[in-house]
Amino acid sequence: xxxxxxxxxxxxxxxxxxxxxxxxxxxxxxxxxxxxxxxxxxxxxxxxxxxxxxxxxxxxxxxxxxxxxxxxxxxxxxxxxxxxxxxxxxxxxxxxxxxxxxxxxxxxxxxxxxxxxxxxxxxxxxxxxxxxxxxxxxxxxxxxxxxxxxxxxxxxxxxxxxxxxxxxxxxxxxxxxxxxxxxxxxxxxxxxxxxxxxxxxxxxxxxxxxxxxxxxxxxxxxxxxxxxxxxxxxxxxxxxxxxxxxxxxxxxxxxxxxxxxxxxxxxxxxxxxxxxxxxxxxxxxxxxxxxxxxxxxxxxxxxxxxxxxxxxxxxxxxxxxxx
Length: 323
Known about the structure:
This protein is α+β, with helices and mostly antiparallel strands. The protein has helices at 2-49, 70-74, 115-125, 148-163, 200-206, 229-244, 262-284, 308-314; strands at residues 80-83, 89-93, 98-100, 106-107, 129-137, 170-176, 186-187, 191-197, 214-216, 219-221, 224-226, 249-255, 291-297, 317-322.
């Protein structure tokens, strides 16, 4: 009987110890499960909020997407802006250039007159760049070739060439977009400028490219045509185009206003074009067989002849390159 009691007591002690150990281990396991659930919930919350998980954090992966698109930035706002190759603002004129619907003419306000000097100064300091002239035009404008965006940008390009930027470093970028013209048909946010690294492949391609039609306004006297930087630049471009394209010829077309009768204006336009042709042949030593002179007289006006400004614009010389 004594041995039975001792054995029973030992059994009770081990049973108690076993139950205690079991519950102790269960409590610890429950704590671990609770921690895992909390960690999982935290991870899910992190994913929901778009925050990085700890396992995804990399000290070398710190790039952000806050870099602005320079062209998109230029096309917004109501001012005239120019950006450098680094995306810095070169100038920002509150009073921008003004265009008129269906007209290639561009009005440059007094405040922005020095835009050409600022662009040229930057180019002089950064000669391995090219300047993009971004020019808006609307699909609702007259369908012409080249489009109004190109025609307007050409006026700015001619100004910049005259100030000293090479024509080969000026790139016209027409941009068709809806334009909210005013009641009188004007709009004052049609242009922007962007410097880019010089595209050598583009330069090589244009060596054999036939130039677009050019319009110049030379000065004449009773003794003939007067030399000018504009005329010298034209000579350089014509000679380069003809040297690189043996099958290309040039037509010099004279245009006039409508003062006087149509026949007299035809002959006046022809006299102007002949003087320009003579200048190109004599100064550039270009074969006279590759350049011809003709006249349209008053028949192709580009502006109203009712004002002095319009008449001056109509008295022009057009240079066409023909294959």
